[in-house]
């Protein structure tokens, strides 16, 4: 679908909903993408703080106002599922929706977090048959786990609370193990951190010891504040290749842009917008 095919009366407002949402970079990123693809006269993107108790009213407003698309963030990703008309198979397996698109009054939920994890990895390695360790078993880890298994990776899920790792591993047919101070990762070619450990303001922490890394590994930290986490610094010092967390954020946003507009996302411009926003904050 190109701009000319978008009906003149189509709803073209998109927004990110969450609580808090004030510091979200999504409006800057999506509006920049509309500009560079020539869509900014048809689409606009903003942010709305929606409290958990107001989610139903917000969805009603989306229908009434004909909002085109939503990016959905904390704390609504699970609670929004029963309020929609349809949920993609992937999002329902993950149990969370981070994207809603309004197709002629029908609200469909999708999950683009999986693309955010898989696309940057796929650009660097063929995941089929690789031994992959996933750290964490929360919301972000669920999207990563289903994506990694569907790519054919041999997945082990490590989590501080072993019960959550076992539960997720059963759902997506992976192995489970406890994440602790003596966790060793040398048998894994790819490691993805989906815990929140290392995120600002606790940036002196890492989910595993600095000594676990070796050259030849590919290490992806989904944490993107700070850009260079302690975990990535240690991995890089040991000669491993690293992927910064901003790639996850960018690729999930790029996929959302494509769902909302039907136009390929201008990923390089989105990346430079993200980096210049980050430098100015
Ligand atoms: P998100 O939606 O960002 O994934 P989440 O669902 O709250 O957030 O999940 C946070 C993940 O980080 C969980 O896997 C959590 O482990 P537990 O299940 O044991 O809570 C992990 N996590 C958070 N703080 C941690 C810490 N200090 N050490 C190890 N794991 C931690």
Describe, in plain words, how this protein is organized in 3D.
With 281 residues, the chain is an alpha/beta fold. It has 9 helices and 12 strands. The longest helix has 16 residues, at 246-261. The mean pLDDT is 94.
CA gyration radius, whole angstroms: 19 Å
Q: Ligands in the structure? A: 2'-monophosphoadenosine-5'-diphosphate
Structural class call reads alpha/beta
- State the major sheet: 6 strands, mixed
In what order do the strands lie side by side in the largest sheet? 2-1-3-5-6-4
**Count the helices. How many?**
9
Oligomeric grouping of the chains: single chain
Q: What is the end-to-end distance? A: 36 Å
Strand percentage lies at 15-25%
Whole-number mean pLDDT:
94
- The succession of helices and strands, N to C, reads EHEHEEHEEHEHEHEEEHEHH
Low-confidence stretches: none
The geometry reads as globular
What's this entry about, in short?
With 281 residues, the protein is α/β, with parallel strands linked by helices.
Helix and strand arrangement:
Layout: E1 13-18, H1 26-36, E2 44-49, H2 55-65, E3 69-72, E4 86-87, H3 89-94, E5 99-103, E6 106-110, H4 113-122, E7 131-135, H5 139-150, E8 154-159, H6 162-172, E9 175-178, E10 190-193, E11 218-221, H7 230-237, E12 241-243, H8 246-261, H9 267-280
Parallel strand pairs: 1-2, 1-3, 4-6, 7-8, 7-10, 8-9, 10-11, 11-12
Antiparallel strand pairs: 3-5, 5-6
Helix pairs in contact: 1-9, 4-5, 4-8, 8-9
The protein binds 2'-monophosphoadenosine-5'-diphosphate.
2'-monophosphoadenosine-5'-diphosphate is lined by residues 136-141, 159-161, 164, 179, 194-197, 207.
């Amino acid at each position: 679908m190109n701009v000319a095919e978008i009906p003149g009366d189509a709803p073209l407002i998109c927004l990110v909903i969450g609580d808090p949402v004030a510091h979200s970079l999504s409006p800057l990123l999506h509006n920049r993408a509309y500009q560079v693809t020539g869509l900014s006269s048809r689409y606009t993107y903003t942010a709305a703080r929606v409290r958990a108790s107001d989610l139903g009213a917000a969805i009603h407003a989306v229908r009434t106002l004909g909002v085109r698309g939503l990016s959905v963030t904390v704390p609504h990703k699970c609670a929004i599922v029963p309020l929609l008309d349809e949920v993609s198979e992937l999002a329902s397996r993950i149990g969370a929706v981070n994207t809603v698109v309004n197709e002629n009054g029908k609200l469909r939920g999708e999950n683009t977090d999986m693309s955010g994890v898989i696309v940057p990895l796929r650009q660097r390695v063929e995941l089929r048959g690789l031994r992959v360790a996933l750290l964490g078993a929360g919301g972000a880890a669920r999207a990563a786990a289903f994506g990694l298994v569907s790519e054919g990776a041999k997945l082990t899920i490590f989590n501080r609370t072993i019960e959550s790792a076992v539960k997720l591993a059963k759902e997506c047919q992976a192995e489970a193990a406890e994440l602790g101070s003596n966790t060793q990762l040398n048998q894994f070619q790819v490691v993805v951190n989906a815990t929140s450990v290392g995120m600002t303001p606790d940036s002196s922490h890492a989910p595993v010891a600095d000594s676990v890394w070796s050259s030849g590994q590919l290490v992806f930290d989904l944490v993107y504040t700070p850009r260079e986490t302690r975990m990535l610094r240690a991995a890089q010092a040991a000669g491993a290749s690293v992927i910064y967390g901003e790639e996850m954020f960018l690729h999930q946003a790029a996929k959302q842009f494509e769902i909302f507009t039907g136009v390929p996302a201008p990923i390089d411009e989105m990346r430079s917008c993200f980096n210049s926003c980050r430098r100015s904050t």
